[in-house]
Each structure stands twice: as structure tokens, then as C-alpha cells.
Specification:
about 40% helix, 25 helices, single chain, disordered N terminus, four-stranded antiparallel beta sheet
Length: about 775
């Protein structure tokens, strides 16, 4: 099972985890058993990886569960004869580490180093077999020089650009956020309500890959359905039509995207999001300019969650302008209203109050006509006169069933056929076309914070944004006296660092002072693990192609549309650049449940963490690992109970007493001649005790092997091992060990060997010690 430490020691009367765990951890380190084999290793390869941690504080039980799950998988694959890569490092740049430094009053580099040292201690005590020869930390220049190199490659591919845009702003963290970092209108890190601001920022064009990211979900291996569903929903492909409404007096077209072209004839007003860039154009120089722009300013101070609240009364303001509905030539009024969001479609909607709840509520508030164009009732298909008329149908009628009415030549058609026929007609008329829209927006990576990877761009008045030459990488993070968040990048205060000559023309220029979002660092770290010490390039393609994709990736579901989506995008972009032979990073994904305390997710931000070290010191690492794997299926959330670990420690004590007692008796009999450690079926048939031991052993072998390989059912596997130990203990206690004959003793010893071997992925320290006690190597 593992290398045997030199100088076998006398067997302990009682199990002492502190002694056993220190001994075996030293043995594993000296034998380098956790290191992956090199290119000449002909064994099947297996890449097992857990999402690496933020070093923003000590490890808590959520980490222990995550890394214990990964260690079981890695140890099992090693036992199956695979060449396993199971590395670890630290996601050490970004807001979590910087906020921890601000809270403690230290410099981010010092606090990060101190936190890493603390987590290193936690890792060491737990005994996970991790390949630390490939260790990396994203804040180290040896790593982030390659993050900058990847950014320059994306810039060269046209996938990175800087532009004005309406961005999510976290007032607490004083920085912009990507759309994926806003959850229910709040910052996913600190929970502060997010507001909108207009800023010039750096983006990665993930939208160029929207369709591929969507299509290739079907190529992913064993991924949880809820994760793939979340990604599909976030990418948000919608089919419909782009329709152009005209402001005739300004000779201006306002395009909208709609998934319901069948309702075009029912549009009775038009709405722009307050952030729409043409709002100032529409009202400029008119009596409506002042109230409209005041409304725009108020809207931008609102949080996103408030604007998306369906129960909130609808507000808005007229622009005094009208657009012409291209379907029927009717002029309809244009409003600005905050219930329309700039992220949706074009930031403008044709409002159909008869068939949309929000539009209906707005129309009622502003006394706007309502025109029904879909019906589910029988009757004439002829157009009805007027905007309002008697109907037995309750409006708004939000349905994709029924048929069209009040829609000229399209009346009487079904909704689906009417949609398609209207699109074809708009294309002929030159006023619209079929279109596809995505909810996904480009990935905003600029951060107005200190602790991050500097963006390797130089701004020149003559040349524009110029990439830093590759040979000048890394662009080192400058030291600044004040890195507290102020809404502008602290790097701008490092004046000597900012001032630089343009690489293109040699004239005075200035460095980019925003840093990259930490998710850029983590969107490629799994590639670096394949070639972690390469000084010249992020990774060698041959080595990356040898290990990638990751065979089993393990982490939290909260990263379904953050890290996982970004990593898929970056892998595809680097594949297209010829850097990689694979275009999907993770073949299989397992999302473990959370460890909760007092009903809430255990996290440093909630202040409810339980650190593992005191429990390791009292009960042992194996007992802690077993408890978190046994308390429930790893996919489910579990509530931490301080006394729960006592049960798994008692199990290990029972196992130890059984193994040492049986082995002592076995040796006392001098390894009985003719007795096998795996008795035959015929041999055990004559003894109920021997048969019971053999059944328990073989049943455990069958179930544990299946449970590890299938769906990560570690809790049921451990339960079967506990039952097997109970069976062996009962046989010994009822008969008395000295009363067992040679076959019965051999059967119980075989049971001990089987349990010990099967237990090794879950509790490797005691398993290796017990295996050695029974003469194994």
C-alpha cells in the first residue's frame, strides 16, 4: 500500500494518532510517494484536482471536506495503478487576500505570506498526499509573469480591449465587478448592494465564445446537471428578432431585440434603459432634458436588486419623443424607465402591455393604451377596432399559445408561425431580421485595487494602448504607501513606476494602473501545474496535452458561472492560439456540499468557521477526515457537530484493538501451518464464525469498491467498513480469541486485512500502520 518506514516499531497497546500520523507523513515525504511520474511513466495518467484556496485566513472544515474528497479519489486512483497528478497551490492575489490584510492592518504581501504559512501547517497535519513539488502561488512573480503573457496573447487575438461601459460598482470594496460577481444585485464577496457607473475598463471578449461555450456543454463528461443548467442559463441564448424603430424627426433608428415578434402589433409604447447612450440625444435641447437626466441620475444610484424587484412600483419619465412602429406605422411614445436594464438586448424594449406583466403595470401607472394581439379564445380572426375592447381573457395574457389577432395579414396564425412570418416580412421590408441574443456579457477584468496582477499595457497619447514587450515581463507590482480602496487604483500613486517610455515610439507614456481580477489568475492555474517550473512560457504544450483535461475536478457549486465558465473560455482561446491541444479543461466535475455551522455556510466572512487543528490534535487527522466523509453524501451540505468526530475516533480505536489482538494471536500460533490468510470457501463452510467473517470481508470489498467508483458514495462505504469491524469484534468477543480455531482466526485476520486495505483512501495513516502490523509493506 505504501513505503514501509525503516525500523519497524513495537506495536502500540492503544492507538496514538499523533505518533502514527507524524511517522507516516515523514515516510511518505521521504519516499516522495505523492509526486507524479515523469514523461517516461507508462502507467495510465490521472489528473485529480481540488479548487485551490484563498489564503485569507486559516483553513476551516469546509476546506477539510473538499480536500479529503479529493484525496480519496487520488489515493484510489493510485491504488488502481494510475500515475496520479494531485497538486496544490494558493489563489493568493485578489480581494479576499487584500481584504484580510486591511482587516489585520498589515501589508498584503506580509499577511498573505503569514496566512500561507498557517494553511501550510494545516495541510501538513491533515496528511493529504499532495504533490507539493508543483506548488504555486498566484501572487509570486514567477507565476504572474505568465498571467501577463497570457493577457498579451489575448490582446493579440483581439480578445482583450479597453472601452467605456456601464459597470457594476461595489461601494464597499471600491472596485468594479464582473456581471458574474453580482448575485441578486449584491457583491458576491461582501454582500453590498451593487450600483452602476460609467467607466473605461478592460474586458475579455468571452461573448465571442458564447455559442461554443453553450454547444460544448454537451461534450462535458460527468458534470452535475445543476452546474450545466446554470451555465446554460447564464449564457442565455435567446432566439427572436431585431426590429428597428425610427425617430423620424431626428432621422434616428432605435433597434430592439425581442423574443416575441408575434406581439409587434401590440406595442403601444417604447422604453429605454436610463443608461442607454441615446437618451441624452433624444432629449438634448428640449424641455424634457432636465427631468429625464435627473431621473437617469436617480436610477443609477439604485441597486440592481431594487431595480429588478418585481413588486416595486414602476417609475419612468417621458422623453417627448415618438418612434414609429414598423409593423403598422403607428407612432408610439418613448419613455425612460429603470425597470429596463442595459444588459438585456439593446437596452431598449418595445412595450406590449397586453402580453407582458411589467409593461402592463407601467401602462396602468401612466395611462397608456393596451392592445391585445394574442388570444386563446375561439371566434373571428378579424382585427378589432380600438385599443381597448371587451374580452373574457384576463390581461396581461402572457402566453406562447394561441393565435394572432389585431395583426393585419398575420391574424389567425399560431404564435410560432406568426413569429416566423413576421420576421420574414420585416426582412423583406428592411426594418428587421431574425436574431440571436445572449445574456452573457464580456468579462470585465479591471480592478481598482492594489493586490492583483498588473495589466501589462502602456498608454501612449500617439500610439494608444501598447503591450509591454514579452521580454520585459513580469511587470512587477510596485510598493505603495497606501493601498486602501478609494475608488481609483492605488498603483496610480507610484509615479515613478507609472512613468515610462512607449515601447512603440519612445515618447513619454504611462502604465496601466488597474490590476486584473483574481479570476484571471485562477482561470489557467490547472495548466501551470502540468509544467510549474517553466521560466520561459506558461507551460509546454506537450506536457499540458499529456495531463489535460483534468480527469476529476472538485470544488464548490458557487463557482458554476465564475471560475468554471472563465476557465472554459480561456482554455478555448489558448487552444485557438495553438497553445493547447484540448479546448475543455475539466473532463469530470464534482461539487461537494458545504459544511455549515448554526445553519449557515462556514466561511471567514460570516465569522462562523471551525478550524481543524484543535480536532486533529485531540482526535487525529484520520478521525476528522472520516467524520466529514461519513456524516452524509459528499454532495450534500452537512451541519458541523462538535461531538460528531468522537464516533469516528471510537471506530478507529475498535479497528486498532481488533487488528493488534488478532495479529498478536496469529503470531503466537507461529503463523499456523496450512492456514491461509484468505481461507477457501470449503474451509470456512464448517464454521459459522469463519463464514461470517468471510462474508463481511467480501461484502465490504464489493461495496466499498463500487461506492468509491460510483457517485462518490463515501459515507456508505465507510458505514460498510464499520459494519465489517463490528462483525470481527463480535466474533472475537463472543468466542474469546484463544478459542478461535486456525480457520476462524485466519478468516478474521483476512477481514482485518481487507478492511485495512479498503480504509486506506479514507484514513491512510492508521491503515498503513495497521497494514504494517499485519506484516504488509
Amino acid at each position: 500500500m505504501s513505503e514501509q518506514p525503516a525500523g519497524r516499531q513495537a506495536t502500540m497497546a492503544a492507538y496514538e494518532p499523533a505518533v502514527v500520523e507524524a511517522r507516516w507523513q515523514q515516510a511518505w515525504a521521504e519516499a516522495r510517494v505523492a509526486e507524479a511520474g515523469g514523461p517516461d511513466d507508462e502507467r495510465p495518467r490521472a489528473y485529480v484536482l481540488e479548487m485551490f484556496p484563498y489564503p485569507s485566513g486559516r483553513m476551516h472544515m469546509g476546506h477539510v471536506k473538499n480536500y479529503s474528497v479529493g484525496d480519496v479519489v487520488a489515493l484510489h486512483r493510485r491504488r488502481m495503478g494510475d500515475n496520479v497528478l494531485h497538486p496544490m497551490g494558493y489563489d493568493s492575489f485578489g480581494l479576499p487576500a487584500e481584504n484580510a490584510a486591511i482587516k489585520s492592518g498589515g501589508h498584503p504581501s506580509e499577511v498573505t505570506a503569514r496566512n500561507i504559512a498557517g494553511i501550510d501547517e494545516d495541510f501538513a497535519h491533515m496528511g493529504w498526499l499532495l504533490d507539493w513539488s508543483r506548488r504555486l502561488s498566484t501572487h509570486e512573480p514567477e507565476y504572474y509573469r505568465h498571467t501577463q503573457r497570457i493577457f498579451l496573447q489575448l490582446f493579440e487575438q483581439g480578445l482583450a480591449d479597453r472601452r467605456d461601459g456601464l459597470v457594476n460598482w461595489c461601494p464597499n470594496d471600491q472596485t468594479v465587478l464582473a456581471n458574474e460577481q453580482v448575485v441578486d444585485g449584491e457583491c458576491e464577496r461582501c454582500g453590498t448592494e451593487v450600483v452602476k457607473q460609467s467607466l473605461e475598463q478592460w474586458y475579455l471578449k468571452i461573448t465571442d465564445y458564447a455559442q461554443r461555450l453553450l454547444d460544448d456543454i454537451d461534450r462535458l463528461g460527468d458534470w452535475p446537471e445543476r452546474v450545466t443548467t446554470m451555465q446554460r442559463n447564464w449564457i442565455g441564448r435567446s432566439e427572436g428578432a431585431e426590429i428597428r424603430f425610427e425617430v423620424e424627426e431626428l432621422d434616428l433608428e432605435l433597434p430592439v431585440f425581442t423574443t416575441r415578434p408575434d406581439t409587434l402589433f401590440g406595442a403601444t409604447f417604447f422604453v429605454l434603459a436610463p443608461e442607454h447612450p441615446l437618451v441624452p440625444v433624444l432629449v438634448g435641447g428640449t424641455d424634457h432634458a432636465e427631468p429625464v437626466m435627473e431621473y437617469v441620475a436617480r436610477s443609477q444610484r439604485l441597486g440592481q436588486a431594487e431595480r429588478e424587484d418585481a413588486e416595486r412600483p414602476k417609475t419612468g419619465v417621458p422623453t417627448g419623443r415618438f418612434v414609429t412602429n414598423p409593423a403598422n406605422g403607428v407612432r408610439i411614445p418613448v419613455f425612460v424607465a429603470d425597470y429596463v436594464l442595459p444588459e438585456y438586448g439593446t437596452g431598449a424594449i418595445m412595450a406590449v402591455p397586453a402580453h407582458d406583466q411589467r409593461d402592463w403595470e407601467f401602462a396602468q401607472a401612466f395611462d397608456i393604451p393596451v392592445r391585445q394581439v394574442i388570444t386563446q379564445q375561439d371566434g373571428s380572426t378579424a382585427d378589432l377596432d380600438g385599443d381597448r375592447y371587451n374580452t373574457d381573457e384576463e390581461l396581461p395574457l402572457v402566453t406562447r399559445e394561441g393565435r394572432l389577432i389585431n395583426s393585419m395579414q398575420f391574424s389567425g396564425l399560431s404564435v410560432d408561425e406568426g413569429s416566423q412570418r413576421i420576421i420574414e416580412w420585416l426582412e423583406v421590408e428592411g426594418t428587421g431580421k431574425g436574431a440571436v441574443s445572449y445574456r452573457l456579457r464580456d468579462w470585465l477584468i479591471s480592478r481598482q485595487r492594489y493586490w492583483g496582477c498588473p495589466i501589462p499595457i502602456i498608454h501612449c497619447d500617439a500610439c494608444g494602448p501598447v503591450p509591454v514587450p514579452v521580454e520585459q515581463l513580469p511587470v512587477l507590482l510596485p510598493d505603495v504607501s497606501d493601498y486602501s480602496p478609494k475608488g481609483t487604483s492605488p498603483l496610480a500613486t507610484a509615479e515613478e513606476w507609472v512613468r515610462v517610455d512607449c515601447p512603440a515610439c519612445g515618447e513619454p507614456a504611462r502604465r496601466e494602473t488597474d490590476t486584473m481580477d483574481t479570476f484571471v489568475d485562477s482561470s489557467w492555474y490547472f495548466l501551470r501545474f502540468a509544467d510549474p517550473h517553466n521560466p520561459d512560457q506558461p507551460f509546454d504544450r506537450e506536457l499540458a496535452d499529456r495531463w489535460l483535461p483534468v480527469d476529476q475536478y472538485i470544488g464548490g457549486v458557487e463557482h458554476a458561472v465564475l471560475h468554471l465558465l472563465y476557465a472554459r473560455f480561456l482554455t478555448k482561446a489558448l487552444h485557438d492560439a495553438g497553445w493547447l491541444g484540448v479546448d475543455e479543461p475539466f473532463a469530470n466535475l464534482f461539487t461537494q456540499g458545504m459544511v455549515c455551522k448554526d445553519g449557515a455556510k462556514m466561511s471567514k466572512s460570516r465569522g462562523n468557521i471551525v478550524e481543524p487543528l484543535p480536532y486533529v490534535q485531540r482526535y487525529g487527522a484520520d478521525a476528522l477526515r472520516l467524520y466529514l466523509l461519513f456524516v452524509g453524501p459528499p454532495v450534500q451540505d452537512v451541519e458541523w457537530q462538535d461531538n460528531g468526530i468522537e464516533g469516528t475516533r471510537r471506530f478507529l480505536d475498535r479497528l486498532w484493538r481488533l487488528v493488534t489482538g488478532v495479529e498478536a494471536r496469529w503470531q503466537a500460533l507461529g503463523n499456523p501451518a496450512g492456514a491461509s490468510s484468505c481461507p477457501s470457501l470449503e474451509a470456512v463452510a464448517g464454521s459459522e464464525a469463519a463464514a461470517a467473517a468471510a462474508r463481511a470481508a467480501h461484502g465490504a470489498i464489493r461495496q466499498v469498491s463500487a461506492d468509491i467508483s460510483r457517485d462518490f458514495q463515501f459515507n456508505t462505504a465507510i458505514a460498510r467498513l464499520m459494519e465489517a469491524v463490528n462483525t470481527g469484534s463480535r466474533i472475537v468477543n463472543e468466542a474469546g480469541i484463544e478459542a478461535l480455531d486456525e480457520v476462524e482466526l485466519a478468516a478474521v485476520r483476512f477481514l482485518c486485512q481487507s478492511v485495512t486495505s479498503l480504509l486506506q483512501p479514507f484514513a491512510p495513516h492508521i491503515a498503513c500502520e495497521a497494514w504494517e502490523v499485519m506484516g504488509g509493506s
